[in-house]
Amino acid sequence: MTDIICRNSILFDGSGKSPVIADVAVTNGKITAIGTHLDAIHGAIEIECQGLWLMPGLLDIHTHLDLEIELAPELPEVVRHGTTTVVISNCSIGVTYGHQRSNGEDPIVDCFARVENMPKSVLSRVADACTWSDSQGYLHHLQSLPLGPNVVPLIPHSMLRIAVMGLTASISREPTKQELARMVQLLEAGMAQGYAGFSTDALPFHFLANAPNKKKKIPTQYAGFLELSRLTNIVRRYNRVWQATPPKDNIFAAVRSFMLTSGRLYRHPLKTTVLAAIDLQTNRSAIYLCLLLSSILNSRILKGHLRFQALSSSFRIWSDGAINPIADEVPEFRVLNELELDDRQGRARILNTPAWVKAFRKMWLKGKKGWSLARILQRLRLEDVVLTRQLKDMIVAECPLASWVGETLEAPYRRLLKYQSSSAHNASPHDEEVIFFSSLPNPIKDDAAFFLHLLRAWDTDLRWETTFANRNTKTLRKLLFHNQTLPGFNDSSAHLANIGFYDGNLRALKIAQQEGLQQVSRMIHRLTELPAKFFGVNAGVVRLGAQADLCIIDPAALKQWDPEKTYHFMHRPQFGCRQIVNRPDAVVRNVIIGGKMAWDNGTYSDEFGKTAYGRVLRAKDHALEQNMTHL
């Protein structure tokens, strides 16, 4: 292992204190000296950091990298963005208990394919390789891989239920007393082995992907309050983290479940982190309800310990026809999502079914005409759905008519109305748009009919994007710095063709940069030491004796970067599909993990992906190291 000295850096140690100009020396994977004009070390790599920010490696607190770890354990997209520690097995799904195949059931494929929009062929290949069968075996497996960043695993509730009950039983009945006791036993084992916490999910649009379960939600959503209470009590006793998502359409159920964080009611607070505090375009009240609930639960009266996760960017998604990460929220789109991605004929049959068309039109036009409660709620941004139904919010990314690319769907819709209302068409009859317009029914009466005909004509060849949350930069800034939130939620490696949030931490730093170095220091703390302490792992700081997980950032390049203009699609052979990525140029200069250079001025090291850089971070290791320090 080659020693490293970072010279003349603007050093942020992760604590939130003001930065200092300092050298940092790394020997045998640890930080061994911090100061000015440190002595040279024979054979050490010297990195000149004048004018550059040196900080702890960043944490990504909400990912679905479980599958990517099996395909590319170095996690290159994560590392190039300055992230050195990731939390996996969120939202109740993972590979903790192996492939879990039984009686023709294929839980990994069933749970991941629709929830995280991943190709079934890739999921099946991952499941083939999951030969372990318990949580200890999974830890051994992770430790055997050439990891890029450090990995912090959680125990996923859906897979825990399947391990005890089997998939079919876990989505069709309550557990017996013996089965619940077995779940408690397995979760207790995971906590004793050092898992950082336990993840559940209650979002109403997370469905299974395989027949005959396509109308069923993932197993965690069939757990009653008693089961949730019993299991989280184990997590509370170990002072670990419960990661949850709320039942967004049932405020009473959400309040009841999140009351589990209360130290007043349950004798000791339960560390709880909830997905997510975001500024929805369709419902502006959602974030205020989240923050209000959090402040009440964390009050002196209830003594809770709950933090809503915050996304550091605009929530921009790409859709393939009617298929996108939130389409299952809407029943009319859900039946299309139940089909395989390549089943164009199946979707065509649905799109031409009169009963479905009637339901679609009712859904799409709700609140758009006349005066009604739905109209008022839409105008006030208080709708009960997340998905946009406004053509002006839908920007064409790809379609058979190249001239539409970059336009909102509202623009060609207006041209179509003008075309159909005119008896003499000015455009050339050879114009591609005119040819397409002439193929549509005349008249097209509303935007529902227009969008429906686009789906019929082009299906997934129509690729469009929309930003359905976090459009307001001032509101986003408040969320990222709010004392009731934890930034760092990026959903990395989920929805590969639909979202690209690996860059979220860098966006947070860019927002902070606009307000000066002290705010940058605050944000670095919120992306490093703060979440590391919350999850109980030994990471996120630059101090003597700490593992050398470091990130060097060029603030000038960060300032010049426009995050909305650096998206692009790339083919990842490991996934067998296109992936949307957002890669800022030259912002992250160097990434050091475990004292080894992983990323250096735009290139990975020769050994990256061949040998381990990161490690599995266990909560119990952190506790032991803390006790040793006090002794």
Automatic annotation (TrEMBL):
Signal peptide interval: none
Keywords for this protein: Hydrolase
Hydrolase is among the record's keywords: yes
EC number(s) from the headed UniProt entry: 3.5.1.81
GO cellular component entries: cytosol
GO molecular function: hydrolase activity, acting on carbon-nitrogen (but not peptide) bonds, in cyclic amides; N-acyl-D-amino-acid deacylase activity
PANTHER family according to UniProt: COLLAPSIN RESPONSE MEDIATOR PROTEIN, HYDRANTOINASE/DIHYDROPYRIMIDINASE FAMILY MEMBER
Protein name: N-acyl-D-amino-acid deacylase
Organism the protein comes from: Acetobacter ascendens
